[in-house]
Amino acid sequence: MSSAQGFGSNSPRTKLTQSQLNAILLRHQAFRKSQPGGVRANLKMRDLSHLDLSGIDLSDADLSGAKLFSARLTGANLANANLYAADLRLANLEKADLRRADLRGACLRGAVLSEATLVEVDLRDGTLLHYDSSGEMLSHQYEDSVLTSELTAATIRGADLSRAKVANAFVMQTDMTDAILRGTKFMRANLTGSNLTGCDLTDADLTEANLSGARLSGAVMTGCAINRTNFSGATLIGAILDAAQLRSPNIQAAVLAKTLENPDDDLRDILVEHLSWIDSGGKSGKRADLSALDLSGRKLDGINLSAAILQCIALRGARLTGAAMAIADLSLADMRKADLSNADLRGVNFERATLTGANLTGVQLGPVHIQTMSGHIWRANLQRARLGMALLCKADLRKANLAGANLAGADLTGADLSEADLTGADLTGAVLDGAKLDQAIVEEAIGLER
């Protein structure tokens, strides 16, 4: 009898108590350390529902067919573990290490995997098993039956699924915001209605995948295979696409950035109304809203868009030298290689914006002091912004929120980062000659020599 056929038996799972599990974990720990009496944990077909497994080391353990319904596995080490056909519905796997784990045919419906490491995990089809309505695993009648892995309604925010195999899986209504999906295989996967905002899909394979209704604003899709991908109703406004992808016929079914019919006249009218709105303190005119517009390559030097709404705007290669954009909302904007030198960007919102290779020399990205009784300070928000290879020489970044920002290879010569939040920021290869880091939060910064 094959191992898969063995799973097919309808024998009930053995329920383990916390104390019984602890004894198994002690022997597994000894096994991992090559100590006498050590035994690899065999939790095959065991019922571990609702147990607290936080921080435990079950790397290389056999959990095939195990029931881990609503189990707590935060920070657990499950690297190389066999979780074939495991029931992980509603399990909490936040910050767990699942690299190279076998999750074929596993059910992760409603599970929490935020900030988990799922590098090279296998979520392809399993065989011979299925879950009934109560979550019980039953055998199929035929040996060629398929058990599809499921991540429906799971929360996978900020997780790393680089090079994971997710072909044919159900990933519907799943929150994958800011997930790293570099080189991930999604062939024929069903991602209907999922949230992939800010995801890194570089070199991923979405061939024949269903992304209808999915949100991909700010997602990096360069080098991503999209042959016969279903983008019907998918939001690609603010997504980073290469020229070949934009020519793909199936991309036209997506919601893309808009263009103005008469760009010069329309933009001039919008700016006149916006300046009136600024000068009157909002009593006349109209606040500019250029969200989801494509203004790539335009010359907009000295433009005044202070406090304007510019979400998901495309300004690739645009010239905005000396522009006034204080407190403007440029979240999820595509500003690759834009020239923003000497611009007033105090208090701006660049959250998840892409400014790769942009010229931000001499920009003001410090705080704005709001004139109220409380003396509120409005900090510039560059959380998770992509600033790789950007020029930030002599930039004012005092008190700026750069948590999770990518500054790899950026030139920060002479920049003022005093009191800036660099938690989790990637500064690998960044030039920091003469930069000020007084009272900056740098404990979790990557690539920063201390």
TrEMBL record:
UniProt xrefs under Gene3D superfamilies: E3 ubiquitin-protein ligase SopA
Pfam families registered for this protein in UniProt: Pentapeptide
Protein name: Pentapeptide repeat-containing protein
Organism (species): Azospirillum lipoferum (strain 4B)
Alphabetized InterPro entries for the sequence: 5peptide_repeat, Pentapeptide-BTB/POZ_domain
Coiled-coil intervals, chain numbering: none
